[in-house]
Design brief:
three-stranded antiparallel β-sheet; 283 residues; Serine Threonine Protein Phosphatase 5, Tetratricopeptide repeat; four-stranded mixed β-sheet; alpha+beta; Arc Repressor Mutant, subunit A
Length: 283
Protein backbone atom coordinates (compact mmCIF):
# COMPACT_ATOMS: atom_id res chain seq x y z
CA UNK A 1 0.00 0.00 0.00
CA UNK A 2 1.40 3.37 -0.98
CA UNK A 3 1.76 5.76 1.93
CA UNK A 4 1.40 9.51 1.37
CA UNK A 5 2.70 10.09 4.88
CA UNK A 6 5.92 8.13 4.33
CA UNK A 7 6.24 9.58 0.81
CA UNK A 8 6.16 13.09 2.24
CA UNK A 9 8.82 12.31 4.86
CA UNK A 10 11.09 10.70 2.27
CA UNK A 11 10.63 13.59 -0.18
CA UNK A 12 12.18 15.96 2.38
CA UNK A 13 15.37 13.88 2.45
CA UNK A 14 15.84 13.38 -1.28
CA UNK A 15 18.61 15.05 -3.22
CA UNK A 16 18.95 14.59 -6.95
CA UNK A 17 18.50 11.03 -8.16
CA UNK A 18 18.99 9.32 -4.80
CA UNK A 19 17.82 5.69 -4.91
CA UNK A 20 15.22 4.91 -2.25
CA UNK A 21 14.47 1.49 -0.78
CA UNK A 22 10.82 1.42 0.22
CA UNK A 23 9.99 -1.05 2.98
CA UNK A 24 6.63 0.45 3.95
CA UNK A 25 4.26 -1.29 1.56
CA UNK A 26 7.33 -2.77 -0.18
CA UNK A 27 9.97 -3.82 -0.78
CA UNK A 28 10.68 -1.87 -3.94
CA UNK A 29 13.32 0.51 -5.22
CA UNK A 30 12.51 3.99 -6.53
CA UNK A 31 14.94 6.35 -8.22
CA UNK A 32 13.53 9.66 -9.39
CA UNK A 33 10.36 8.86 -11.31
CA UNK A 34 11.47 5.29 -12.04
CA UNK A 35 10.33 2.31 -10.03
CA UNK A 36 12.33 -0.92 -10.03
CA UNK A 37 10.74 -4.16 -8.89
CA UNK A 38 13.09 -6.22 -6.79
CA UNK A 39 13.60 -9.77 -8.16
CA UNK A 40 11.84 -12.34 -6.00
CA UNK A 41 15.05 -14.26 -5.37
CA UNK A 42 16.75 -11.13 -4.04
CA UNK A 43 14.05 -9.52 -1.90
CA UNK A 44 14.96 -11.26 1.33
CA UNK A 45 18.62 -10.31 0.93
CA UNK A 46 17.80 -6.68 0.28
CA UNK A 47 15.44 -6.48 3.26
CA UNK A 48 17.85 -8.37 5.52
CA UNK A 49 20.59 -5.83 4.82
CA UNK A 50 18.22 -2.91 5.44
CA UNK A 51 16.94 -4.24 8.76
CA UNK A 52 20.43 -5.07 9.95
CA UNK A 53 21.58 -1.50 9.47
CA UNK A 54 23.07 -1.72 6.01
CA UNK A 55 26.24 -3.80 6.56
CA UNK A 56 26.55 -7.49 7.46
CA UNK A 57 29.04 -10.31 7.16
CA UNK A 58 28.52 -12.42 4.02
CA UNK A 59 28.65 -15.68 5.95
CA UNK A 60 26.10 -14.43 8.49
CA UNK A 61 23.66 -13.26 5.81
CA UNK A 62 23.99 -16.56 3.90
CA UNK A 63 23.44 -18.66 7.01
CA UNK A 64 20.40 -16.66 8.15
CA UNK A 65 18.70 -16.47 4.76
CA UNK A 66 19.43 -20.05 3.62
CA UNK A 67 19.75 -22.11 6.80
CA UNK A 68 18.92 -25.42 5.11
CA UNK A 69 21.89 -27.26 3.65
CA UNK A 70 25.62 -26.64 4.03
CA UNK A 71 27.62 -23.41 4.04
CA UNK A 72 28.73 -23.85 0.44
CA UNK A 73 25.17 -24.04 -0.84
CA UNK A 74 24.14 -21.01 1.23
CA UNK A 75 27.08 -19.03 -0.16
CA UNK A 76 26.05 -20.01 -3.69
CA UNK A 77 22.48 -18.85 -3.08
CA UNK A 78 23.85 -15.54 -1.81
CA UNK A 79 25.93 -15.03 -4.96
CA UNK A 80 22.89 -15.78 -7.15
CA UNK A 81 20.72 -13.31 -5.22
CA UNK A 82 23.38 -10.62 -5.55
CA UNK A 83 23.74 -11.20 -9.29
CA UNK A 84 19.96 -10.97 -9.89
CA UNK A 85 19.74 -7.84 -7.80
CA UNK A 86 22.56 -6.08 -9.60
CA UNK A 87 21.09 -7.04 -12.96
CA UNK A 88 17.82 -5.36 -12.01
CA UNK A 89 19.37 -2.31 -10.36
CA UNK A 90 23.12 -2.16 -10.74
CA UNK A 91 25.31 -0.93 -7.95
CA UNK A 92 22.70 -0.81 -5.19
CA UNK A 93 24.79 -3.09 -2.96
CA UNK A 94 28.54 -3.11 -2.47
CA UNK A 95 29.78 -6.69 -2.18
CA UNK A 96 33.19 -7.06 -0.58
CA UNK A 97 35.05 -10.25 0.08
CA UNK A 98 33.68 -10.53 3.60
CA UNK A 99 30.90 -7.94 3.93
CA UNK A 100 27.83 -6.67 2.14
CA UNK A 101 26.54 -3.13 2.43
CA UNK A 102 24.33 -0.56 0.72
CA UNK A 103 25.84 2.26 -1.23
CA UNK A 104 26.26 5.34 0.95
CA UNK A 105 23.69 7.33 -1.01
CA UNK A 106 20.86 4.76 -0.74
CA UNK A 107 17.98 6.16 1.31
CA UNK A 108 15.83 3.68 3.29
CA UNK A 109 12.34 4.90 4.17
CA UNK A 110 12.40 3.02 7.49
CA UNK A 111 15.41 5.08 8.58
CA UNK A 112 13.62 8.29 7.60
CA UNK A 113 10.53 7.38 9.65
CA UNK A 114 12.69 6.32 12.60
CA UNK A 115 14.50 9.66 12.53
CA UNK A 116 11.21 11.59 12.44
CA UNK A 117 9.94 9.58 15.41
CA UNK A 118 13.16 10.00 17.36
CA UNK A 119 13.04 13.80 17.08
CA UNK A 120 9.41 13.97 18.20
CA UNK A 121 9.91 11.64 21.15
CA UNK A 122 12.93 13.69 22.26
CA UNK A 123 10.83 16.88 22.04
CA UNK A 124 13.13 18.36 19.39
CA UNK A 125 11.15 18.35 16.14
CA UNK A 126 12.36 20.37 13.20
CA UNK A 127 9.79 22.67 11.62
CA UNK A 128 8.68 20.23 8.96
CA UNK A 129 8.18 17.36 11.43
CA UNK A 130 4.84 18.82 12.50
CA UNK A 131 3.76 19.60 8.95
CA UNK A 132 3.20 16.03 7.79
CA UNK A 133 0.21 14.37 9.47
CA UNK A 134 -0.38 10.61 9.16
CA UNK A 135 -3.86 9.77 7.95
CA UNK A 136 -4.13 6.21 9.23
CA UNK A 137 -2.38 2.89 9.69
CA UNK A 138 -0.12 3.54 6.70
CA UNK A 139 2.63 4.52 9.14
CA UNK A 140 2.64 0.94 10.49
CA UNK A 141 2.65 -0.87 7.15
CA UNK A 142 6.23 -2.12 7.28
CA UNK A 143 6.78 -5.13 5.00
CA UNK A 144 3.20 -6.42 4.98
CA UNK A 145 2.95 -10.18 4.57
CA UNK A 146 6.46 -10.89 5.85
CA UNK A 147 6.69 -13.24 8.83
CA UNK A 148 10.39 -14.00 9.32
CA UNK A 149 11.38 -13.60 12.96
CA UNK A 150 13.90 -10.86 12.13
CA UNK A 151 11.15 -8.96 10.27
CA UNK A 152 8.58 -9.34 13.04
CA UNK A 153 10.99 -7.96 15.65
CA UNK A 154 11.80 -4.90 13.55
CA UNK A 155 8.15 -4.32 12.67
CA UNK A 156 7.22 -4.25 16.35
CA UNK A 157 10.12 -1.95 17.17
CA UNK A 158 9.04 0.52 14.49
CA UNK A 159 5.38 0.24 15.51
CA UNK A 160 6.20 1.14 19.11
CA UNK A 161 8.41 4.01 18.04
CA UNK A 162 5.74 5.43 15.74
CA UNK A 163 3.06 5.14 18.44
CA UNK A 164 5.24 7.04 20.91
CA UNK A 165 5.97 9.63 18.22
CA UNK A 166 2.28 10.13 17.44
CA UNK A 167 1.50 10.72 21.12
CA UNK A 168 4.36 13.22 21.36
CA UNK A 169 3.28 14.86 18.12
CA UNK A 170 -0.27 15.30 19.39
CA UNK A 171 0.97 17.07 22.51
CA UNK A 172 3.37 19.28 20.58
CA UNK A 173 0.60 20.30 18.17
CA UNK A 174 -1.61 21.19 21.14
CA UNK A 175 1.19 23.29 22.64
CA UNK A 176 1.47 25.08 19.31
CA UNK A 177 -2.26 25.90 19.43
CA UNK A 178 -3.12 23.37 16.70
CA UNK A 179 -5.61 21.45 18.83
CA UNK A 180 -7.71 20.05 15.97
CA UNK A 181 -4.62 18.48 14.42
CA UNK A 182 -3.56 17.23 17.84
CA UNK A 183 -6.89 15.40 18.11
CA UNK A 184 -6.48 14.00 14.61
CA UNK A 185 -3.01 12.59 15.30
CA UNK A 186 -4.08 11.10 18.64
CA UNK A 187 -6.98 9.40 16.86
CA UNK A 188 -4.49 7.72 14.51
CA UNK A 189 -2.64 6.35 17.54
CA UNK A 190 -5.80 5.11 19.28
CA UNK A 191 -7.07 3.63 16.02
CA UNK A 192 -3.85 1.65 15.60
CA UNK A 193 -3.91 0.45 19.23
CA UNK A 194 -7.28 1.10 20.94
CA UNK A 195 -6.22 -0.46 24.26
CA UNK A 196 -3.11 1.72 24.59
CA UNK A 197 -3.71 3.97 27.59
CA UNK A 198 -1.01 6.51 26.76
CA UNK A 199 -2.63 7.09 23.37
CA UNK A 200 -6.04 7.53 25.00
CA UNK A 201 -4.49 10.02 27.43
CA UNK A 202 -3.03 12.06 24.56
CA UNK A 203 -6.45 12.10 22.87
CA UNK A 204 -8.18 13.22 26.06
CA UNK A 205 -5.61 15.97 26.60
CA UNK A 206 -6.17 17.22 23.04
CA UNK A 207 -9.95 17.27 23.46
CA UNK A 208 -9.72 19.21 26.71
CA UNK A 209 -7.19 21.65 25.29
CA UNK A 210 -9.68 22.36 22.50
CA UNK A 211 -12.41 22.96 25.08
CA UNK A 212 -14.40 19.83 24.18
CA UNK A 213 -15.21 18.34 27.58
CA UNK A 214 -18.10 16.32 26.14
CA UNK A 215 -15.87 14.75 23.47
CA UNK A 216 -13.40 13.83 26.18
CA UNK A 217 -16.16 12.29 28.30
CA UNK A 218 -17.48 10.31 25.35
CA UNK A 219 -14.02 9.02 24.47
CA UNK A 220 -13.28 8.01 28.05
CA UNK A 221 -16.59 6.17 28.36
CA UNK A 222 -15.88 4.24 25.15
CA UNK A 223 -12.40 3.36 26.42
CA UNK A 224 -13.77 2.14 29.75
CA UNK A 225 -16.26 -0.09 27.97
CA UNK A 226 -13.55 -1.47 25.70
CA UNK A 227 -11.22 -2.30 28.60
CA UNK A 228 -14.03 -3.95 30.55
CA UNK A 229 -15.07 -6.03 27.56
CA UNK A 230 -11.62 -7.05 26.36
CA UNK A 231 -9.60 -7.28 29.58
CA UNK A 232 -12.05 -7.01 32.46
CA UNK A 233 -10.21 -4.06 33.98
CA UNK A 234 -10.70 -0.34 34.52
CA UNK A 235 -8.48 2.46 33.19
CA UNK A 236 -6.10 4.43 35.35
CA UNK A 237 -8.23 6.62 37.70
CA UNK A 238 -6.08 9.58 36.71
CA UNK A 239 -7.81 9.64 33.33
CA UNK A 240 -11.18 10.30 34.95
CA UNK A 241 -9.52 12.81 37.28
CA UNK A 242 -8.48 14.83 34.24
CA UNK A 243 -12.15 15.30 33.40
CA UNK A 244 -13.33 16.01 36.94
CA UNK A 245 -10.74 18.76 37.46
CA UNK A 246 -11.22 20.35 34.03
CA UNK A 247 -12.49 23.95 34.50
CA UNK A 248 -15.76 24.03 32.58
CA UNK A 249 -16.62 27.69 32.18
CA UNK A 250 -20.40 27.50 32.00
CA UNK A 251 -21.99 25.34 34.73
CA UNK A 252 -25.65 24.56 34.19
CA UNK A 253 -28.00 27.00 36.02
CA UNK A 254 -24.98 28.66 37.59
CA UNK A 255 -24.23 25.53 39.65
CA UNK A 256 -20.92 23.71 39.35
CA UNK A 257 -22.05 20.07 39.48
CA UNK A 258 -18.64 18.48 38.99
CA UNK A 259 -17.44 15.99 41.62
CA UNK A 260 -15.66 17.86 44.39
CA UNK A 261 -17.01 21.25 43.35
CA UNK A 262 -18.15 22.01 46.89
CA UNK A 263 -14.55 21.73 48.08
CA UNK A 264 -13.22 24.01 45.37
CA UNK A 265 -15.87 26.65 46.13
CA UNK A 266 -15.56 26.56 49.91
CA UNK A 267 -18.79 24.57 50.28
CA UNK A 268 -21.04 27.19 48.67
CA UNK A 269 -22.25 25.79 45.36
CA UNK A 270 -25.25 28.07 44.92
CA UNK A 271 -26.05 30.27 41.95
CA UNK A 272 -24.18 33.57 42.48
CA UNK A 273 -26.20 36.69 43.30
CA UNK A 274 -26.62 39.17 40.45
CA UNK A 275 -25.25 42.65 41.05
CA UNK A 276 -27.81 45.15 42.40
CA UNK A 277 -27.63 47.32 39.29
CA UNK A 278 -28.44 44.30 37.12
CA UNK A 279 -31.37 43.38 39.40
CA UNK A 280 -32.83 46.89 39.18
CA UNK A 281 -32.55 46.86 35.38
CA UNK A 282 -34.79 43.82 35.19
CA UNK A 283 -37.58 45.22 37.40
Amino acid sequence: MASEFVDALVARELTGSTPVLRLFGGPRVVCGHERFEVPEGSKRLLVFLALHRRQVERSYAAGMLWPAGNDGRAAGNLRSALWRLNQARGGLISAGKHRLSFRDDVLIDMDVVAGWARRLIAGRPVGADLAVLPAGAEAFDLLPGWYDDWVLMERERIRQRVLHALEAMSRQLVMAGRCAEGVEVALVATGAEPLRESAQRALLEAHLAEGNWVEGRRGLDAYQELLARELGIKPDPRLAAMLSTYPRSYPVDGVDDRPGAEHRSGGDNRRPERPAAESMATM
